[in-house]
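Q&A log
Question type: sequence-to-structure
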Amino acid sequence: MTSPEKKWYAIYTNPRAEKKTAEKLTEKGIEVYLPLQTTIKQWSDRKKKVEEPLFKSYVFVHIIFEAERLAVLETYGVVKFVRIGGEVPAIRTTIIDAIKLSLAHFSNIEITNQDLYINQQVQVIAGPLRGYTGKVIEQHGNQYFAVNIEELGAHMLLKIPASHLGIL
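Response status: OK
Response body:
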């Protein structure tokens, strides 16, 4: 009999506790992925670059669910595992890799020359995310393509050039 393999799961954290929760999980020896993006915050007297979680109140853990579930739930800041339809779905490694690729490659690219509509199915036809499909969830002008990642029950907003998108 083979031993169970580690899989990725999404957990909810207390609001604004993602970094501290990830730190506490790491201290327990649990592999964690907290996707961060750099944004510029404006105060009345200054601007500052800040790293913020890509998904508010989400952290990803790479665990053997049955063996490490309680250790995760007992960690400071963890509220619960993300459930969809009553189940705690494992997240495919390709989805985690897609998030990593997105953060590495899509920071300053804008969509132009293509009309995208809410609920429209699209496919990435070029670039590192080629082959991924999604649904337009929201748009701001014609510059943003929001990919619905079903395994998370969340949305990931990506800036992808229109030349990399095909309408399904």
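Response note: The chain has a mean pLDDT of 80.
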